[in-house]
Write a structure and sequence with these properties.
Elements (H helix, E strand, L loop, with lengths): L3 E5 L5 H12 L4 E7 L2 H15 L4 E4 L5 H15 L2 E6 L13 H23 L3 E10 L12 H7 L6 H17 L2 H4 L5 H20 L8 E5 L17 H12 L13 E2 L5 E2 L10
Parallel strand pairs: 1-2, 1-4, 2-3, 4-5, 5-6, 6-7
Antiparallel strand pairs: 7-8
């Protein structure tokens, strides 16, 4: 039997790095692959992991904005392991609050990476998921449905019959609305990051509905809010440590096989509690 393997995207630092470390510390029964767009930063992360914790993850370059890069990772996984057992989609971007980039640019770039590139990772790697595979989508409290002000758009996003094509069309509509100045009027609000992470959350619900009909056994997707974490993305303003932010994601990545008590297709808070995605208002931090 081929060895088990877990992939964590965007994991040379921050929450992703902590997830890789916690998977190893919690004795994940296989290899853990730390991914980075930049090979040098990946090598630095591996050296730090070895020096600080005496842990040795594997490494593979991965730029989720580059389909060829994702395909290369898939080929490596198939050739080396025969499949994939855990996928943690951690890679993502956020413009700083003081960014001078126009809203139209922020919308296009953020949705492209956080939603469409994450979807590309899933579309390319899901076919090689093995029985009992676990997928964790790193969402956010910003990915809670209440972050979208418009009632009609919220209804579309939470429609249990929404397809992935339909969701992608909604994400494209947000970008187009940001470009023509109608996003706020349409009910999207004024945050590209919110829209992107709500899209990631909705993506996970749709994926679980599809995987429930898959011939493979016990495939689980969950979405997680890691908390407000002290990372580069938050300009180190978050009160939680990367270790605290990684806990729930690592827990979801290691859910035991064939356990009916497992969260499945759920939006999970950083304290591991299943949380209503479409509740209003958003749960307290």
């Amino acid at each position: 039997m081929s060895p088990r393997v877990a992939v964590v995207t965007g994991s040379n630092k921050g929450i992703g790095y902590a997830i890789v470390r916690q998977l190893l510390q919690r004795n994940f029964d296989g290899d853990v692959i730390l991914c980075s767009r930049d090979a040098n930063r990946g090598a630095e992360a591996l050296a730090k992991m070895k020096a600080d914790h005496n842990l040795e993850p594997k490494f593979h370059t991965l730029d989720i904005d580059d389909v060829t890069s994702i395909e290369n990772l898939k080929k490596f996984l198939v050739d080396t392991y025969g499949g994939l057992d855990v996928l943690v989609n951690n890679a993502g971007i956020a413009f700083k609050g003081n960014s001078t980039a126009p809203f139209s640019e922020q919308a296009e770039v953020t949705i492209r990476t956080n939603y469409f590139s994450t979807l590309n990772v899933c579309n390319i790697l899901f076919p090689i998921l093995r029985d009992h595979a676990r997928v964790v989508q790193l969402s956010s409290s910003c990915g809670h449905l209440s972050k979208i002000p418009g009632k009609e758009i919220r209804a579309k996003l939470s429609d249990p019959t929404l397809t992935m094509d339909g969701l992608s069309a909604l994400m494209s509509d947000f970008v187009a609305s940001a470009k023509d100045g109608s996003a706020k009027e349409k009910g999207w609000g004024e945050s590209s990051y919110n829209a992107s992470k709500v899209g990631v959350s909705a993506m996970g619900f749709i994926q679980q509905r599809a995987l429930d009909k898959d011939a493979r056994k016990d495939l689980i997707v969950n979405m997680v809010h890691p908390g407000y974490v002290d990372t580069d993305m938050t300009s180190h303003k978050g009160p939680l440590t990367p270790d605290q932010g990684a806990d729930a994601a690592t827990y979801l990545a290691m859910l035991p096989a064939n356990d009916d008590s497992n969260p499945k297709g759920q939006y999970v808070w950083y304290d591991r509690k299943v949380t209503a995605w479409n509740s209003k208002p958003i749960p307290l931090m």
